[in-house]
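INFO  loader      accepted 1 record
INFO  loader      residues=288
INFO  predictor   begin
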Amino acid sequence: MTQPTPIRREPIRELLSVAGSLANGGIPVLPLRVGKVPFPNCPACAGNACGGRPNMKTPGPCACTAPCHAWAAATTDPEILLSPPWRRAWARAAAVAYHPGGAGLTVVDLDNADAVAWAREYLPATQTVPTTRGEHWIYFGAMQSANNVRPGVDIKSTMSYARWLGFGPGTGPRTPLPDAVRALVTRHPRTVRPMSASVPAGGGACPHRTPTYLARGIAMAVEQITAAESGVHAAVYGAFLAVLATHGRCGCLTDAHVGRLFAAAQAKGESVRHCTDAWNNARTTLGV
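INFO  predictor   done
INFO  writer      dumping tokens
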């Protein structure tokens, strides 16, 4: 497995300067730890017990002032950015991230040279930013995020975050989001990576005697997720927790079962990262 490219930790003054400039320009930001990952939820928000934040603009059930909930914590509010919980995070941060969808942007993340070559042939030119292994192509307009829409290509927009890499000279003008990019997600509406969630290994013979019991449990969990009108994060976590509590130790669960759960969550707007985090949080809670 390819290890994440290390990020050099920047001084807090520099991070706050970048974050402040972006926020002043209407781009919601958040701190990233080394490894390009957000800070974990505080104890009150662990496992989305608080109900989560539905998005960065609409007040949700979570009133936490810390940078919890990854992309959903991204903000343009200078008081929040400079509040004590956030300053503590910035002091340990390695980089600035932003919520593209919250700024009305879409980032086509091209992870290697082959992906860049494909984009240059099939996508309209736009503002580009070099990354460690490829490029970010940035368009005006927001859309659904999705991972692995084709080899080496991720879409980062709503309910997602991207590391801020700067807009240096020679990157070209930013252009409107084209149908060719939207079509990538339309053709791949459910990007599922169940193996990243890892199915718990069985500890012996299954006590449930019949696969119908498991099938009914998965169907009920899918219905619970699908029926959620608000607090989708909490609904997904609760459904994952219920499935793992019953089937997490006997070895019944397969990648196909996890894939059904992830697909239901993604149909409600959850990203693969949020699905994986909820699944792993539920496993940790149950010790499976």
